[in-house]
Hints:
Layout lengths: L6 H32 L5 H26 L1 H20 L4 H29 L2 H32 L4 H4 L1 H15 E3 L10 H20 L9 H23 L7 H4 L2 H30 L5 H29 L1 H20 L8 H27 L3 H35 L6 H29 L16 E3 L9
Amino acid sequence: MRHDKRTPVLFALILSMALVAMDTTIVATAIPQVVDSLGGFSQIGWVFSVYMLAQTVTIPIYGKLADLYGRKPVLIFGIVVFLLGSLVSAMAWSMTILILFRALQGLGAGSIGATVNTVAGDIYSVEERGRVQGYLSSVWGIAAVVAPAIGGLFAEYLTWHWIFLVNLPIGAIALLLIIRLLHEDVERHSHRIDYAGALLVLVSASALILGLLQGGTTWAWDSPASIGTFLVSVGAAIGLVFVERRAAEPILPPHLWARRLPAGSYATTLTAGMMVIGLSIYLPNWAQQVLGLKPVVAGFVLAAMSITWPVASGLSARLYMRVGFRNTALLGTAFAISSGAVFSMLSVSSPVWQPVLGSALMGAGMGLIVSPLLVGLQSTVGWSERGTITGGAMFARFLGQSLGAAVFGAITNSVLRGQHGVAADIATNAATHATFVGLLISAVATALILVTVVPRHFPAHAGQDDGRVRSGPEQEELHE
Length: 480
């Protein structure tokens, strides 16, 4: 990493992202100890669901607030709320209270997810953002490998409370660096907050994600509860369209969402999120149940994706500066399709290197799809809209993960219902094979969206680097 005055701020962004990246996996490892201490086994799912829900639905709102009032106050607010949620989660005295405090953590995580990439887009040029996205992507890869081990150590040798308390020193360092070294020149004037739009975003997104998370588990997909939840989401979305057309400063500006370029990029990011979550959930289980690998070894099979993702992301700048953002993403879909094909050919007798290869190919594909599209979107707008358009991309990614968990879960359950009397490894292989075919279909759909919807040219905004954000001591400028 080249050392300049922006490096400490980038380090703070990496630490902030690490808070969010580590959370789910470190908590999942210690859940048995949490249940032993607090009880409430039937409520375990909500420990994760309420966090994901609160995080995802607030991202678009935080993105807009970052445009109105600056990235720094929104990011500081998010880190403080996340740390407060971590502290009180460690103090929870029942599973119900823990779930409530996890929602508070999710509210902070939404702010971090919306603003970290926006700040990176502010302080780095288009040529540099691919490399920086590689650093930020590597956080998720490292967290996927390290966080479960840390959670297991805390649960075994200390107490489960430390899975939350460990966030405090990390967040404190990030907070200190951001307060001291990130400076903004935000034009101060009154704003007309789009309260109606914000409320409708929360209602529509919450109902949609709740329906996806609970459908097929808590209630049947065709049950009145499921149908009603999705109808609420659709109704709120329709109302949102009308409200945003009339709002002075809409939470989701129609001119950003209705055009082919952002709409297609968001759709591509959504399908990429589906592929990532499908592989993350089902590959380790398949490796354990079918190949008979130990949990740690099965985790390293998935870790291949975590290694190649940041590498490809870091190298993507060289490609998109030459062939464009869309064509770079298309190259990424070639890797993703190849990965889907490799996974579709897995069997009970497959060698270990085959799923490792598929995982590595998927990571390379994601690095060449997600980062170039995010950088490309940021390059089409100025400072005053970069938070909104970045928040939209992050929202699409997390929504894709919720959708992927629901779709692939439904596919798996459907196949397993037809496998009565079959050996466990055979049944698991059949169900997971159907999911892997779904990954291949998702990869092909991603390529089709890029070809048919996303324009080849991403028009650069003339004022994208307007000097509003500086890093380092207050008197220094953005670039040396």
